[in-house]
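Q: My collaborator sent me two sequences in one message, no labels, and asked for predicted structures for both. Can we handle them in order? The first one she listed is below.
A: Yes, handling them in the order given. First sequence, followed by its C-alpha cells:
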Amino acid sequence: MKKFGLRAMQTRVDKMERTKIDPTVSLPKVSIVTPSFNQATFLEMTIRSVLEQDYENIEYIIIDGGSTDGSKEIIQKYAHKLAYWQSEKDKGQTDALNQGFARATGEILAWLNSDDVLYPGAVSAAVRKLAHHPEAAMVYGDCDWINADNQVIGRFPAAQTDLKKLRRGYVHIPQQASFFRADLWRKVGPLDESFYFAMDYDLWTRLASHAPLLYVPEVWAGFRLHEGAKSIAEDDRCWPEMLRVHYRDGGKKISLFTLKYWVRKILQPFWIWLRRKRIKA
C-alpha cells in the first residue's frame, strides 16, 4: 500500500513555468476556505498542505466551529500565515463555508475540509488550467482516497461531466480537487444551508448552468476516509439531498437519476462496508 507524504511528493519546478502565466501580470489570488470542527488529528496536515503550495498568492481562511480538541491551538500556531481565522460556534459546515467565502477576496475559490489535503503543485495547476480555459466555470482534478494513517487506498472516480450529466446523477467531481471562479460564485452563491451533505453537488449544478466544468486528469488532492468522516458515518444523507436538487430543477420521479437513487439506497450497507474495509486494510 502506497504511503502518502507531502514532502515526498514535492517538486522543485519554477512557479512561473508551472503556471505558464506571464510574469509581468500579477498572479490571480486564490482564496481557500477550510471549515473545521474537532479535527485536530488531521488539521495540521490540512493546513500545511495549503501553506506549503508553490503558488504565492493564496488567501487562506479557516472557520472553526468552536473546537474543544486542541484545534484552536493548532490554528493559532499558523495564524500569522492566515488571512483570517475564527473559532466560535456556527451552524455547521455549510454555514462555516459561507462565512469563509463571504470574507474571500480572491478571483478563484476553493474549499478544503479539515481532514483532507492538497497535493504539492495543485493550486498552480488549477490556476494554469483556468487561465488556459477562460470559458470554464470550474476546473477539477483527480483525487486519491487516503486513510487515517496517510496511506493511499484508492482513487476517487473523477471524470468529465456537464449539467446534463449532473442532473442524471453522473457527478464524478471530487470537491477537494475543485477550483471555481469567484465572479460566478457571486452569481450563484451562497451555498444552500439547508444541505448538510450535498451542498457541493448543488453548487456544481448551479455553476454548470452558466459555463462548462473542466476535468483535468492530474492528481491534485487526498480525500481522507476514516470512521469519523461524513462519507463513512453519514453517507446515507447524501443522495436524498441530491434528490431534492433533482426535483427542484424539474427532474421527474421516473428517471435515470431516481433509478440510481434506489439502486444506491439498496446497495448502501455494502457500500459502507466496503469503505470501512478499505480504511482498515
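Q: And the one she listed second?
A: Here it is, processed independently of the first:
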Amino acid sequence: MPPLVSIITPSFNQARYLEATMQSVLAQDYPRLEYLIVDGGSLDGSVDIIKKHESKLAWWVSEKDRGQTDAINKGFARANGEILAWLNSDDTYNAGAVSAAVEYLQEHPEVGMVYSDCNYINEEGQVIGKFPAAQTDQRRLRAGYVHIPQQTMFFRADLWKQVGPLDPSFYFAMDYDLWTRIAAHSQIKYLPGQTWANFRLHTSGKTITADDRCWPDMLRVHYRDGGSFFSIIVAKYYVRKLIAPLWNWRRRNRLGIK
C-alpha cells in the first residue's frame, strides 16, 4: 500500500479562490489521499463550495478559530497520513505533485521533507513569475536563506509528532519556524526542475498586505534559538527594511495594484 497523504487547507473568506484550490487537490492522481478543510467561519459562500465537494473530503469544519496557524494545527490533529502538507485556500497544486513528492520520500528514507519549484500566479490564475526556490538546510535557514515555497512542501508525519504543532503566536513565519525544527532533526531536499504548485499573489493576500510582519517573526525564531544580534539574518532584516518600499512597489506593479 502506498502511504496515506493528508493535505490540510485552512481558509477564511476565500470563496473567490477556494474552489480552484480544492479542485487542484481532488484532481491529483495519487491513490491514497485524505483532504481536510478547516474554515474559520466564512460568510462569503465558502461553506457552499465546501459542501459541493464534501463527499470527497475526509473531514471539514467551519467555525471561528484563532487564525491560519490554529486552523492548520486543528487539521493536522485530525490527519491520519504518513505524509503531510498544507495548501492555503488561494494557492493550487499542479498535476502529479503529490505522486512526485511521495515517490521521492519513499526512495529516500533519510529525507524528512521535500519541496520543489513554484510559480507566482495572479488573481486570474495566470503565471506572472517564478518563486526563487533553492536548496537550503538548517544553517542557511538560520541565516535567513529560506528559499522554500511552502505550497510545494511535503513532510513526514513522524517529524510532525516530534516537532509540531505550529506555534500559534506566529502570524506570518509559522512555516519558517517549523522548517528550522524539521531541519534540526532530518534532511530537507529541494527538487529543481519540478514545479508542483502555484503561489497566488493578490490584493488581500498576507504576502501583499502584511509582508512587513514576516521578518520580525523570523527574528523571533533566531533569538529564541540563541542567535546573536551580530548575524547574517539580522543584517538581512535591516537591509530588507531599507528596500521594502521598492520591493512592495514592484510586487504591486506586477499585480497592477496602485
